[in-house]
Amino acid sequence: MNVLGVILKAAVAFTFIFTGCIKLFQIKESVRFFRDWGIFPPKIGILLGFGIPPVELMTGIALILNNNVLVEIFALAIIVFLVAINTKAVIDQDSKPCFCFGNFIQTRLGIGGLIHTVYLLLALFVSIFMVEITVLNLFYTYSIFNQILICSIALLTFVNGISIRLVLDKLAA
Amino acid sequence: MINISINTILEWIFSILLALLFYKNAMKKKHHIFSFYKSMSEYRFFKEGLALRVISSLLITCDFVIALVILIPIYRPAISLLGIAIQLFYFFIMIINYNLYSDNNCGCFIINTPYSVSFKDITINLSIMFVFMSVFVLTIK
User: Fold this and answer.
1) Between β-strands A97-98 and A107-108, what pairing exists: parallel, antiparallel or unpaired?
2) Within-domain flag for B124
3) Is residue B1 part of a domain?
4) Nearest of B85, B81, B89, B132 to residue B112 by alpha carbon
5) Which residues of B touch A72 (CB under 8 A)?
6) What is the pLDDT confidence band of residue A145, given thresholds at 50, 70 and 90?
7) A126 — contact with chain B (CB < 8 Å)?
8) Is residue B133 situated within a structural domain?
9) Do A76 and B129 touch (CB under 8 A)?
10) pLDDT at A137 over 80
């Protein structure tokens, strides 16, 4: 059960690292996007534009290197926030553009985002009670082969999440 | 010296908050039981009848059970899962009935059965679900 938990947790961590890195590389666009998004007031938007990329990146890294319950709760909070934003887009039928993956992958808020965030929420929640407290981090196993295997399956799970989102975005458009 | 970790403190703070919230909510629902039943019957999911009478009584009982049992540490994981399930149930009901105005609702229920379903109520619902998740995670680790 530990292995499955670590795979799911790593998939969520990879998603956070990927989104954090892309936004960090395009920090100016990120600030501009959150300022003009219309969901938050401009001043809060600027703060979010600066704050979200490093926070996502650090949460992703902490999820991989740590088995700390507070980090996991923080990651859950971020995902629940994303679920709320996507739910609003679904019920208002207003699919605004989303800077979730920067300009690298164009996505929109809506059903695709909702399914993707619920997928991440379930993955993280299930992984939390599968990974034992003795498993300190992703590299708990000393076998290099197992580490590569875990990383590969986690990467596939992460790509699967993005694919689901992109397909649903295309269908909803 | 008493050694209490931050996780235990957080777990107790969240549990007491949830217990107070659900106890107050359950008491309101118990006092206005017919209003609760009628507002549930107006939602686009249920029909008036014996089944809804049983479901609405069960929901009020669940609120009381959560309020009392979440304070007992050994039952906390199970009751957190029940709380998550109930919040999910109300979440779907609210999404189905978004922007619905209930004529028979007294507007006195604190959570989950609002007078008119708005995004604010859905956000509150999700926040409570997040607190239940946090309690569950803090308890099992």
Assistant:
1) antiparallel
2) yes
3) no
4) B89
5) 137
6) confident
7) no
8) yes
9) no
10) no
Q: What ipTM was assigned to the predicted interfaces of this complex?
A: 0.86
List the structure tokens of B38.
């009628």
Interface of A with B in 45-104 (CB under 8 A): 69-70, 72-73, 76-77, 80, 83-84, 87-88, 90-91
Average pLDDT, stretch A61-80? 90
Alpha carbon distance B118, B107 (integer Å): 13
- For chain B, what is the domain count? 1
For residue B119, CA distances in Å to A39, A83, A90, B88, B116 come to 13, 12, 11, 15, 10
Selecting from A83, A128, A129 the residue whose C-beta is nearest the C-beta of B126 gives: A83
Q: What share of chain B is helix, strand, coil (3-state, %, to 5)?
A: 70, 0, 25
Could you tell me if residue B56 is inside a domain?
A: yes
Q: Nearest CA to CA, how far is B68 from chain A (Å)? A: 24
Distances in Å between the alpha carbon of A15 and those of A10, A63, A86, B35? 9, 11, 17, 45
Phi–psi pair at A52, nearest 5 degrees: -60, -50
For residue range B113-133, list pLDDT tens digits in order: 887 888 888 999 999 999 999
